[in-house]
């Protein structure tokens, strides 16, 4: 990881770069759902819980994990690491390129806290509806935000997220 790359990444993460999609996709007609998170055992379990909650509806689900710690070697889901950030603030990863260019109907971001890498992913994704945790400083990155207490945990957040997107008609 490059400090210059990280600084350049933060300078290019302007939320105004992406126009919000005003037409919310309906869950019933949705076909592609993405799940994005920064590595944590509980978030990994939450991603699996979402897959189980959605799996009965014949939807394609892609998961991408960002590993921000050197001591973590891998994840059970496709992943990319902080070391893949180059000096120009670009993430050099086939997994990231494929994920960003997938036209998800819903992209669920499981992190309670926003970091520069996730901001970059959320700005550049082709997802129609980005769903995440409600926070004042994150409103420009999501079309749908779920408000709840952080102490409820990521598994509760995952359940609430699915409940709300299933209600979209």
Secondary-structure map:
Elements: H1 3-12, E1 32-38, H2 41-55, E2 60-67, E3 79-81, H3 94-100, E4 106-109, H4 116-124, E5 129-133, E6 144-146, H5 154-167
Parallel strand pairs: 1-2, 1-4, 2-3, 4-5, 5-6
Q: What would you note in describing this structure?
A:
The protein is α/β, with parallel strands linked by helices and 169 residues long. The chain has one domain (3-13, 29-167): Alpha-Beta Complex (inorganic pyrophosphatase (n-terminal core)). The protein is built from five helices and six strands. The protein has helices at 3-12, 41-55, 94-100, 116-124, 154-167, and strands spanning 32-38, 60-67, 79-81, 106-109, 129-133, 144-146. The chain has a six-stranded parallel β-sheet, sandwiched between helices. Helix 4 links the parallel strand 4 (106-109) and strand 5. Helix 2 (41-55) runs parallel beside helix 5 (154-167). The chain is globular. The termini are far apart. The model has no long low-confidence stretch (mean pLDDT 87).
What labels describe this entry?
169 residues, single chain, 5 helices, inorganic pyrophosphatase (n-terminal core), 18% strand, 6-stranded parallel beta sheet
């Amino acid at each position: 990881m490059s400090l210059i790359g990280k600084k350049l990444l933060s300078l290019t993460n302007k939320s105004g770069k992406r126009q919000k999609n005003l037409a919310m996709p309906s869950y019933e007609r949705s076909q592609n759902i993405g799940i994005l998170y920064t590595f944590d055992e509980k978030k990994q379990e939450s991603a699996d819980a979402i897959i189980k909650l959605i799996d009965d509806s014949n939807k394609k689900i892609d998961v991408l994990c960002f590993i921000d710690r050197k001591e973590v070697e891998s994840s059970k889901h496709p992943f990319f690491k902080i070391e893949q950030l180059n000096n120009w603030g670009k993430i050099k990863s086939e997994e990231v390129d494929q994920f960003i260019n997938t036209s998800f109907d819903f992209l669920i971001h499981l992190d309670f806290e926003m970091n520069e890498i996730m901001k970059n992913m959320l700005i550049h994704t082709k997802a129609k509806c980005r769903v995440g945790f409600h926070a004042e400083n994150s409103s420009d990155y999501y079309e749908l935000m779920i408000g709840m207490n952080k102490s409820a945990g990521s598994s509760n957040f995952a359940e609430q997220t699915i409940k709300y997107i299933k209600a979209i008609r």
